[in-house]
Amino acid sequence: MPDILHRVGIKSPSPNDTYKALTTIEGLSKWWTEETQGETKADGVLQFRFGPNGGFDMQVLELDPTKWVLWQVIDGPEEWIGTRISFELKQEGDFTIVLFKHQGWKEPVEFMHHCSTKWGVFLMSLKSLIETGKGAPHPNDVLIDNWK
Amino acid sequence: MPDILHRVGIKSPSPNDTYKALTTIEGLSKWWTEETQGETKADGVLQFRFGPNGGFDMQVLELDPTKWVLWQVIDGPEEWIGTRISFELKQEGDFTIVLFKHQGWKEPVEFMHHCSTKWGVFLMSLKSLIETGKGAPHPNDVLIDNWK
């Protein structure tokens, strides 16, 4: 089964700030979408919205502080439902490395190509948030194609 | 086998300029790496270099003007050798859509995660080149992590 994979390195002395940006409403709303709500603790459900384009509900399956975040998509576009999104963090010198996976896609549909590029752009927004204090979350995200 | 997939949409009235940027030394050197040399026609070999980090030699396997470009990696990092890189172009209204695939990876190694994000960033450089006249090729590319 095809997966979306990414790796970004964030200039930061420890994974603490990156972990916080993945596990708090304030953090998530500063790099992915300003329309973020819900419960960030394990078993909680997060709602990510993108204006008229709808969005995703994610259940928080696993949290290991400063190391690991795993979500499962429980509502959203049909292709996303049941897929899992993970962030593995580790420190390499001056960089917090984020290994990202979005797994469980049934088919490598065109929408998956779009989501792959878009995840890359949002992870660069996360990097920018930690390094400069400013990310590019929806509705001010970087547009990549005619699907936005 | 895992693949790297991306989709970008370039504001352009036809795929002609994008196709040219994928099939001429001048075009390739304006979005991927300024150190591009070789033969761009079918069966030709392209050399892409990235300063001290080495680079890739690609054989041009297939060309279908304004629609399709397929390369095979014949030299470079071990994980890349034998893999295939394709660009499928199509016009949707004001956008030239690029469907990108880098296929044939044996394992989803950490380097593949890096390459996935980096390809996304370079495809955004291609988009910028066509839309604004200015891309961000190596050595002025956007750095994504400690592997550059």
TrEMBL record, chains A, B:
Superkingdom classification of source: Bacteria
A Pfam family cross-referenced in the UniProt record is: AHSA1
Which SUPFAM superfamilies does this one have? Bet v1-like (SSF55961)
Q: Which CDD domains match?
A: SRPBCC_CalC_Aha1-like
Residue stretches making up the Activator of Hsp90 ATPase homologue 1/2-like C-terminal domain: 14-131
Please report which protein family the annotation says this sequence is part of: Belongs to the AHA1 family.
- What this protein is called in its record is SRPBCC domain-containing protein
Organism of derivation: Chelativorans salis
Q: Which lineage? A: Bacteria, Pseudomonadati, Pseudomonadota, Alphaproteobacteria, Hyphomicrobiales
